[in-house]
Amino acid sequence: MKTSPTTAGGNSARSPLRRLIAGVSLGSDALYGLLVKKWGLSGPFVWPACAVLAVIGAFLAVNPVLDMPINDDWTYARMSQLLVETGHMQFNNWTAPMVGVHAVWGALFIKAFGFSFTILRFSTAVTAAGCALVCHAICRRLGLRSAMSAFTAMALMLSPLAIAMTSTFMTDIAGLFLFLVVLYCVLRCAHASTERASVGWLLATMCAGVLGGSVRQVLFLPPFSMIVSVMVVRWRSRVVVLAGLGALMCLGASAAALLSWQYAQPGSVHNLGSSPVLAWPQIGWRVLLVAFGAMTVAALAMPILASALTIPAAWKRGGAIALLTTGLALAAGALMPDVVLPPWLGNVLTKYGGLFPNEDILGDKPVVLPTGGRILFAAMVYLAAALVGSEGLYALRDRIRAFGWRRPKFPDGQGLTLAVIVLPATGLYGAAILSRSLSGSPVFDRYLLPVMGAVLPALALLHHSLISPRVTAIGWAFLAFSAGLGIAMTHDQIAVRRATLAAADRLTSTGLSRTCVSAGYEYDGWTQLLSEGYIIDPSLVRGGPVHPRFWFDFSTPAVKNCYYVVLSPQPGLMPSEFEPVRYSTWLSPRQREVSIQRNPECNDRSCTTSGPSTTGRPQ
Question: What is the DSSP letter of 193?
């Protein structure tokens, strides 16, 4: 008896996906049983607890124990450390965010447990767990089931972007948490049963907005827009409108006072004097940045968007447009792969699994996201985004036609109310981020976390209304893939820094000063702060090399660069007597190494005195 080729081939092709879905299902059942039967949790607490445990589990899985900074968090760590030691906020010529309550939060952990970068990462993990809880609460306010609410929270906080930021002491997770608190307070205000409750939630919105702006100045803007939206939704209540005007005035006065304070501090960084560039080539690039940002959000939202791929009705209404869009995009990808294929914006998520080569440390990096995988994932992103977009536009058209424009009402806790609140705030935030590029500042993917915090609940509501109120199997599968990729990439980024620190420790253990060693952006930045307290403006440095070997050399004159820790041999440097430090990663290639090279232009005798730390670790 012959076996049908189609059936046999289909079963074989689907077996890995079926095993993945089965594994996720069994894991979910086991976790649910543990929470309900073993720990006695029940009712509304089970799914939020699952989301929190998933966030903490992902954080622990990356092995975050490392006493070395990651990305920019060395500058924020120093601010928290000095806040404990001196009681004052001290900027260092490298910190553009205001930091504010984020530095205070880190200082509390330092006061309780002592200073280390690992302790500060754990403080961020606590904040990330809070993000999951607030996102769950937002979705519940929108009428979603607890399981779908927890799934949305996990889609947000288990994305590769959020996992990477949770494993640092950067300000992005703290900013996301306060943004979500603002959104929750606004939703409560919009549908409060009494005017007194509305005024109370407006006050809470204003306070959360001030705290958010104290962390990252751009977060002053969304509360302004959201308060105005609440005044539109509750326009019949004179008390709410007057309270909203008062909240706007207080928020504006607080923002002005805090910004004036920051810019008056020694070592603060701001770009108020920068002139925007408005030439047509630059404008075209900014339009492309907007497209990159939209596709990055779509890619990170795939646990929710992917369900549209299994809905026949969605294919019937928008399938032709989705296929045409995807085909054109992939055809263009043959000519411009880095424009069409993910990741798009870069910084945290790149095809190298982290920062681009020579950004954080000298040397080449292997490509960990193969082109074939990027093409397949891009096709699914384009298809899902086009299908969901078409369904959303049809739904919006129907709601607009049924809306009473002469006597507007917002009777439900969903749909139009959320759109009126989220769309202007997201647009204002996006415009503020885009304005950075007009003055020459880069736009990074991690700036999109607040946008994801607003968009993912809206997509979950759309999923609830148009696809299913339940989480689909393909949604769980994409969530598992997203979390697994994020954990692996973050684990490997920490692994290379652990090897870098081990190589630097080999040098300092021989008696060499830490200032003799250049071990990358984070290591050198921390050395400079320990030595002189400030990062140096490159324009003030005289007599240095015209073309420095490492881009950060001008800003860290305390680092004498006698020895370099590198990912691959560099021209102009000599081999040293130290063996390479080998380490393992989870993504291919799994066996890698960092090398130690000697600068022939440096005199070793100048590196025999003790620097700020002879162990290579923070004091």
Answer: S
Q: Which of 156, 56, 168 is nearest to 102 (CA)?
A: 168
Which two structure tokens, joined as six digits, stand for 84? 């404990």
What does 571-619 look like in DSSP terms, one character per residue?
TT-EE-SSPPEEEE-SSSS-EEEEEEEE-TTS-GGGG-S--S-SSSS--
Task: Give the orientation angle of helix 280-300 with respect to helix 449-466, to 10 degrees.
Answer: 50
What is residue 314's predicted lDDT score, i.e. its pLDDT? 77
Q: At 379, give phi and psi (nearest 5°).
A: -60, -45
Measure the CA–CA gap between 203 and 186, rounded to whole angstroms.
10
**Confidence class of residue 619 from pLDDT cuts 50, 70 and 90?**
very low
- pLDDT tens for each residue of 400-450: 666 555 555 544 445 667 778 888 999 899 988 888 777 667 889 999 999
Instruction: Give 272-310 as a DSSP string.
Output: TTPPPP--HHHHHHHHHHHHHHHHHHHHHTHHHHGGGGG
Q: Supply the angle between the helices 238-263 and 221-233 in degrees, to the nearest 10.
A: 170
- Helices 5-33 and 473-508 meet at what angle, rounded to 10? 70
Helix (H) or strand (E) holding 485: helix 473-508
Contact predicate 21/479, CB 8 Å: no
CA atoms within 13 A on the CB side of 384: 27
State whether residue 350 is helix, strand or coil. coil
Half-sphere exposure of 546 (CA within 13 A, CB side): 0
Q: How far is CA 315 from CA 311, 312, 331, 340, 394, in A?
A: 7, 5, 21, 23, 13
For 406, phi and psi rounded to 5 degrees?
-75, -35
pLDDT tens sequence across 14-42: 444 455 445 545 555 565 565 555 555 55
Question: Which of 358-367, 417-426, 558-567, 610-619 has the lowest average pLDDT?
Answer: 610-619
pTM equals: 0.88
Tokens of 277: 């560039």
Confidence of residue 83 (pLDDT cuts 50, 70, 90): very high
Residue 377, CB-side half-sphere exposure with 13 Å CA sphere: 23
Which tokens is 45 given?
A: 């607490």
Q: What's the full length of the chain, in residues?
A: 619
- Given this model, what pLDDT does residue 279 score? 45
Q: Percentage helix, strand, coil, to 5, in the chain?
A: 65, 5, 30
145: left (phi over 0), alpha (psi -120 to 50) or beta: beta
Average pLDDT over residues 55-62: 95
Residue 456 · residue 301 · CB < 8 Å: yes
The partner residues of 381 in beta bridges, in order of sequence, read: none
13 pLDDT tier (thresholds 50, 70, 90): very low
For residue 439, the Cα-to-chain-centroid distance in whole angstroms is 23
Strand, helix or coil at 564?
strand
